[in-house]
Amino acid sequence: MSHPYEITTESVKAAPPAIVSLLHMGGMTPADWVTVLTLLYLALQIGLLLPRYLKRIRHYLEERRRES
Q: What does the UniProt keyword field contain (predicted)?
C-alpha cells in the first residue's frame, strides 16, 4: 500500500469523531447538530419537492380548464 493512501484512509476514519469533538468545544452539543441537520434535510426535501408539486397542480388546473 502506498503511503498517501494510508494517510487518506486513516484521516477518513478519524474525521467523524474529530468533527464532533470540535463542534462540541465550539458550544454545540451533538443534539443541537442533529436538530440543525434535520432542519437542513427538511428544507432540502421541501425545496426539491415543491417545484414538482407546483408543476402537477398547474397541469391539473390546465386539464380542468380544457374540460370545461
A: Membrane, Transmembrane, Transmembrane helix
Residue with cell 442533529: 34
Is 20 in contact with 30 (CB distance < 8 Å)? yes
> Position of cell 474525521?
15
Which pTM value belongs to this model? Answer: 0.50
Encode pLDDT of 15-67 as tens digits: 777 777 777 777 888 788 889 889 999 999 999 999 999 999 999 999 999 98
Please state the separation of Cα 31 from the chain's center in Å. 16
DSSP the chain: --HHHHHHHHHHHHHHHHHHHHHHHTT--HHHHHHHHHHHHHHHHHHHHHHHHHHHHHHHHHHHHHH-
